[in-house]
Structure formats: C-alpha cells, structure tokens
Predict the structure.
Amino acid sequence: MSVIINIESSGSGCSVALSVDGNVEYSKIERTPMRQSTDLAPFAAGAMEELARHEWKADAVAVSTGPGSYTGLRIGMSLAKGLAFSLDVPLIGVETLKLLAVKAMFRRMDFTGDEIIVPMVDARRMEVYTAAYDSALNALMPPQALIVRPDSFDTLPSDRKIVILGDGAMKTKEVLKLPNAEWMDGVLPLATDMPALAEKAFREDDFLDVAYGVPTYIKDYEAVHGENPLAHLLHGVQLHK
C-alpha cells in the first residue's frame, strides 16, 4: 500500500489530497486566489490527522512543480519539503503541465489516443506556459514560455486533433488558426488529480532532492516596481554631501 500526501499550489487556488494506492481518501480545495499562505498548511494538517485516524504511515509527499504562480510554487515546495523531511519520506515532483494533460485524458471518455494535448498556464497578456503531449505523455513540444501567435503550433501534425486546455487556453481561441483544434473549458490543476503521476513516480523511485529540489519556473521572476512613495518629497530638492 502506498500512501501519498499531494500538494498543489501552482494555480490561483490551492489544494491538498491524501491518496492510498492512487485513490483519494481526503481532500481540501480552496479556489479563492492568493490563499496558499493561509490555507495550505491547515489542509496538510488535516491530511496528517487523517493519517493518524487510520493509523496509516505516509510513504511520500508529492508537490506540483510548475510552471505557474511564482509565490504559490514557492509556498507549496517549502511545505512539501518540510513534510517530507519531518516524516522521513521521499519528495515527488509532479509537472503542472503533465498534470493538466492527465486530467484532460481522465475527463474525456471519447479520446481515441491519437489526440495531441496542449495544456496552457496563463502567464499574463498573450503569453502562456505550454507544451504538447501525446497520450503517453511524450513531449511533442517541450515545456516553454510562449507568446501566442497564429502560427505558434504549426509544427504539430496537421492530421491529428489538438486539445487545448488550462487557465491560459481561452484567450488563445481567437488567435490560433488551427482547424483541427478544440478548446476544453474548466481544466485547472488540483491535488485530487495528482495521484496517477505521483504513484508512477513512486513506483519508479523518481524523487526530488529534499534539500535542493526547486520548482520549474521556466523563466526568471520579474518584480514589478511601483513609483517610489517618497519621490514627491524629493522632487525639486537638491541633495548636498
């Protein structure tokens, strides 16, 4: 029996799920944006209480590694590392784009297996974090930050259906000129969708370093600096040494 604590904080919301042999036995979800710092730890505490109630022992902690919200990813990774260290169990990293692709496959029962799945995480304006996967999660386009243009996905096979999803998908609908594409609404990353990938990593001993593992940001953080609040006081004032 494998017991895994799953933590997802890459999106605007956050969630925690406790899975046993791939089945979710406990979950907490907060869809309100920017609540990772206040809600993730109590959700994880609830998972720990569930472990104690059933007298289960955790075998691993899994965390979504991004790309996504810089702050959310840092909070989730810090919590996951702390839990893995204190419980003395391995740390599993689950790629957010693959998580979205798996969720799409589980959600659609009419997939033939020939579809190309294109998850998109919003990165502001017309930029997204994206990749393209086949049904075996082989990357036909590697994870990347992409400013979406009409020809952005022209390198993908033109004779296969392309399924586009994620919180960055809808804004691309009027831009991409893909006659064989369809857009799937409402596919967001949740901890309850992580067990399939977490279980696979656990079986294959595919773990992150608890001390040095980091999220997948794809591109460097860019801080936005506002106007100096003291600027109006200094305007026209000459400073002398």
Notes: Strands lie at 3-8, 14-20, 23-30, 60-66, 91-95, 116-122, 127-133, 139-147, 162-165, 181-184. Residues 36-54 form the longest helix (19 residues).
